[in-house]
């Protein structure tokens, strides 16, 4: 393992113990095995970081293996999206493999099991099979077809493969123990008939292996040393090992399945089935909707690979399922964006500010720093003029001493510019302020040069010059669900908790330095938060997604009374 000092989690302790007990380090091999039946979400990101992180720590190969055993739900689109997500997170796989690569080997092994009397074709309905399964406290009863002859089973299984039967007429089951206390050991299904075109094998196969049969054997074929999965697969471990027992050659590495707890995220769902519902029923715009917990949705919203990796590292690996507050993920995103994003000015709820004593028609370009976190500071030029936009909430006609923004009779600094003083307002017939009039101190220019003003005032607000401002569509996101744990109440449909205000689209104005911003570019809108250019943006229309608020988003709001 790498020499970096850290305490080992229980997964790493398992690996260290195996190495100590004689497993050669060059035999370590890991895998990430997604099903290509949807887009990956934040839970998968943790698994990706675990498996590929172990590969980096132990300098061992990691396979990307697609568990493509159900053609009725799988698509090439999902395969491509998964590969894109893993690469975007910063990882490289040793081999790109598929369960479908092993269909023939799995079939051949199954034939051998039938010949040994360890598998049989069952012709009961799914309802009959379910009834005969028994309960955790009551043994199951054997199928009437359990004692079919080897010859009849071989014949039926081959005919299943050749497509002679309709879906649901036959299945192939392992013959294990109908009285086992582990329900999964009660003659589990190994193959079912599915007459659907496979995205890789086409119409070659009419039968497809179940997960429990395909997964462990795929691990064995690839010589995976450690197969890590989530806790719901703990009862499957006994079956995983039973299947391996049937084919294991002691001269090869025997894969070891071990389980870790899911890390659920608050105010969202991390079930591909539920995410699929949100997409298909139109509650979101697609798998990459920025409100979704999918990796593609988070990427589109402006999250960074480093932030997600740091989040996965922060929550760690545990043995108990836990609900992680989404604010921790947002903290990790904010921490990374603070280091890498340029600071720019944008106004999202504009009101016009006229500097009455600023010369008519005058325009000047002021210097503004791009990011104070930079080792070598860089600057840009921003235009200043007589008419500006400021945030409506940054002005009150009357305010107490704790309000440090613009008000009548008091001074405030315009960021990177001058000190101004509120003088008056213009209102419409409904009493809404349409213009704020102010005067400026021509000798109060901010900056680092000899002309910079030494005057200090308590408040600073941002602005954009109206003649130079670029109109932009800005998408403001809130939690997708109003409930902290939308999966928590099983008696209520999770969709009842969908937040009707999870998306608010507004028109804002940004400084002209953003005129040529491209999809994926990220910025800090000063005093407002972090924003990313959306893929819908065009040369004619800028579109921004709000990624996350600033550190003080939930801090005590300044009193306006």
From TrEMBL:
Enzyme Commission numbers on file: 6.1.1.18
Residues covered by the Glutamyl/glutaminyl-tRNA synthetase class Ib anti-codon binding domain: 342-441
Disordered: annotated segments: 126-145
Binding site for ATP: 35-37, 230, 270-272
tRNA synthetases class I (E and Q) anti-codon binding domain location: 460-534
Compartmental location: Cytoplasm
Top enzyme class: ligase
Binding-site list for L-glutamine: 67, 211
Pfam families: tRNA-synt_1c, tRNA-synt_1c_C, tRNA-synt_1c_C2
Polar residues bias locations: 126-144
Oligomeric form and interacting partners: Monomer.
Record-linked HAMAP family: Gln_tRNA_synth (MF_00126)
Family: Belongs to the class-I aminoacyl-tRNA synthetase family.
Protein name (record): Glutamine--tRNA ligase
Organism: Paenimyroides ceti
Lineage: Bacteria, Pseudomonadati, Bacteroidota, Flavobacteriia, Flavobacteriales
């Amino acid at each position: 393992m790498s020499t970096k000092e850290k305490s080992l989690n229980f997964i790493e302790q398992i690996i260290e113990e195996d190495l100590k007990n004689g497993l050669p380090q060059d035999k370590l091999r890991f895998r990430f095995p997604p099903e290509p039946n949807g887009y990956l979400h934040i839970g998968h990101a943790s698994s990706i970081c675990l498996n590929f992180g172990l590969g980096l720590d132990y300098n061992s190969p990691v396979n990307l293996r697609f568990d493509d055993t159900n053609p009725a739900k799988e698509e090439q689109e999902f395969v491509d999206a998964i590969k894109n997500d893993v690469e975007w997170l910063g990882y490289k796989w040793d081999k790109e493999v598929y369960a479908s690569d092993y269909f023939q080997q799995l079939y051949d092994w199954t034939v051998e099991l039938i010949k040994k009397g360890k598998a049989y074709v069952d012709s009961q309905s799914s309802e009959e099979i379910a009834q005969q399964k028994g309960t955790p406290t009551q043994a199951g009863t054997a199928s009437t077809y359990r004692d079919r002859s080897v010859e009849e089973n071989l014949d039926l299984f081959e005919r299943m493969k050749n497509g002679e039967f309709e879906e649901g007429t036959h299945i192939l089951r392992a013959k294990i123990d109908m009285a086992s206390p582990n329900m999964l050991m009660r003659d589990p299904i190994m193959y079912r008939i599915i007459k659907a075109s496979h995205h890789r094998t086409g119409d070659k196969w009419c039968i497809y292996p179940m997960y429990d049969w395909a997964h462990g054997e795929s691990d064995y074929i690839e010589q995976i040393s450690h197969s890590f999965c989530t806790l719901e697969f703990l009862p499957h471990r006994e079956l995983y090992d039973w299947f391996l027992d049937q084919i294991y050659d002691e001269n090869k590495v025997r894969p070891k399945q071990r389980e870790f707890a899911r890390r659920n995220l608050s105010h969202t769902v991390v079930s591909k089935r539920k995410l699929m519902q949100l997409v298909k029923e139109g509650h979101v715009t697609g798998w990459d909707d920025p409100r979704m917990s999918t990796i593609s949705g988070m990427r589109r919203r402006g999250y960074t690979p480093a932030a997600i990796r740091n989040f996965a590292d922060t929550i760690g690996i545990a043995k108990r399922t836990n609900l992680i507050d989404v604010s921790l993920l947002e903290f990790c995103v904010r921490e990374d964006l603070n280091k890498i994003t340029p600071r720019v000015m944008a106004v999202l709820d504009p009101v016009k500010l006229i500097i009455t004593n600023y010369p008519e028609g005058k325009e000047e370009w002021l210097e503004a720093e791009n990011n104070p976190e930079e080792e070598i500071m860089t600057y840009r030029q921003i235009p200043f003029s007589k008419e500006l936009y400021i945030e409506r909430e940054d002005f009150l006609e009357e305010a107490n001493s704790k309000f440090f923004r613009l008000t009548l009779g008091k001074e405030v600094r315009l960021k990177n510019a001058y000190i101004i003083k509120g003088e008056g307002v213009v209102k419409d017939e409904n009493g809404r302020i349409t213009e704020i009039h102010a005067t400026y101190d021509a000798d109060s220019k901010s900056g680092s040069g000899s002309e910079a003003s030494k005057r200090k005032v308590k408040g600073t607000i941002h602005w954009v010059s109206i003649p130079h401002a670029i109109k932009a569509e800005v998408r403001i996101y809130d939690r997708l669900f109003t409930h902290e744990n939308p999966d928590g109440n099983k008696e209520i449909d999770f969709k009842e908790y969908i937040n009707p205000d999870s998306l608010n689209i507004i028109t804002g104005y940004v400084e002209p330095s953003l005129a040529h911003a491209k999809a994926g570019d990220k910025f800090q809108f000063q005093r407002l938060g972090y924003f990313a250019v959306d893929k819908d943006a065009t040369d004619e229309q800028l579109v921004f997604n709000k990624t996350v608020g600033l550190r003080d988003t939930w801090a005590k709001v300044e009193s306006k009374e």
